[in-house]
Amino acid sequence: MNTQNIIKRLVSLIVVVGFTMNFSQAQMLQLENQESHLTVFGSSNLHGWKVDAKTKNGSIGFNDLESCDITHLSLAVSAESLKGVKLGITETATETLKSDQYKYILFTLKEVTNVTPKGNGQFAVQTIGDLVIAGTSKTIPLDFNVDIEKGNVTLAGNAKLKLSSFNLTPPKRLMGTIKAKDDIVLRFETNFTESPIL
Predict the structure, then answer these.
(1) Which helix (DSSP H) or strand (DSSP E) does residue 179 occupy?
(2) Residue pair 60/123 in contact by the 8 Å Cβ criterion
(3) pLDDT tens digits, residue range 63-111?
(4) What is the pLDDT of residue 60?
(5) Beta-sheet pairing, 48-53 with 82-83
(6) Using CA atoms, how far apart are residues 23 and 150, in angstroms rounded to an integer?
(7) Helix H or strand E segment including 61
(8) How far apart are CA 183 and CA 193, in angstroms?
(9) What is the pLDDT of residue 6?
(10) How far apart are CA 11 and CA 5, in angstroms?
(11) Helix-strand-coil split of the chain, %, nearest 5
């Protein structure tokens, strides 16, 4: 199966997962785009930079919400929705991520490796999942904190990555005088809530 088909299947999974999960066994919550934040941070030989994702969707599922027994987690970020404080940063980021060809940054959970209760509905969670950037998929560790309050769930964490791990070349600007570094950080705080049954 080629990479484009894998990406299409992942996006389809995120969109229709609610219809394919057994609701009698798993409690599903949907990502609230306006209440969620994801930022990509990087640096260059001159200064740091960041871009914020404006369009995000996804879902999380639990066998048991109170004990943070996660069975499913999928996230999709529109690469074309990444915006910097300056137009040049936005254009560089979307060009580097090949957003005209690969529309989404995707994460799908493979395994929860550890859950540590911290009290008051808070947990430290360690996971392994597949991250797809610009058509290249890598299995990565992803640790985050979970806050469960009145049926709403917040995930907060970050992931340190290298552009070259996803076959991407750190960009250069102004005839090579500005050179981005290979290291980037994805920082997120995503809120999930139960969607009303129509």
Answers:
(1) strand 178-179
(2) no
(3) 999 999 999 999 999 999 999 988 888 888 888 888 889 999 999 999 9
(4) 97
(5) antiparallel
(6) 19
(7) strand 56-64
(8) 32
(9) 52
(10) 10
(11) 20, 55, 25
For the chain, how many residues are written? 198
What is the pLDDT at residue 24?
Answer: 44
Do the Cβ atoms of 72 and 26 come closer than 8 Å? yes
Instruction: Tell me the backbone φ, ψ of residue 25, rounded to 5 degrees.
Output: -115, -25
pLDDT tens track for 29-61: 999 999 999 999 988 867 788 899 999 999 999
**Cβ of 55: how many Cβ atoms within 10 Å?**
14
Which of 6-10, 69-73, 188-192 is predicted least confidently? 6-10
Judge whether 129 and 135 are in contact, CB under 8 Å. no
Kindly state the average pLDDT of the residues 188-197. Answer: 84
Asked if pLDDT for residue 175 goes beyond 60, the answer is no
- CB distance 154 to 191 below 8 Å: yes
The Cα diameter of the chain in Å comes to 59
> Rounded to whole angstroms, how far apart are CA atoms 141 and 86?
32
Site of tokens 């999380």:
60
Backbone angles phi, psi at 11, to 5 degrees: -65, -45
CA torsion 81-16-167-82 (nearest 10°) is 10
